[in-house]
Write a structure and sequence with these properties.
This protein is globular. The chain is mainly α and 66 residues long. The chain is 55% helix and 0% strand. α1 crosses α2 and α2 crosses α3.
């Protein structure tokens, strides 16, 4: 069973990239590097905007397993 998409407690800012990495089963550093590269290549604004939307939309990980 795939875990639910939540913000991670392994956070640098809000836990969005770490939450996506845990949900996808990828390395957290890889997701963060990919996020930075995509943000830079798209003039930064869309990346920041999407990060803020995900920060608001994704629930915080409570540690409770379903």
């Amino acid at each position: 069973m795939k875990p639910h998409l939540t913000r991670s407690n392994h956070k640098v800012i809000a836990g969005v990239c770490a939450g996506l990495a845990e949900w996808l089963g990828w390395d957290i550093a890889l997701v963060r590097v990919l996020y930075v590269l995509v943000s830079i290549l798209s003039a930064a604004f869309p990346g920041i905007f999407i990060y803020i939307i995900l920060w608001v939309a994704m629930p915080q990980d409570t540690g409770y397993k379903y």
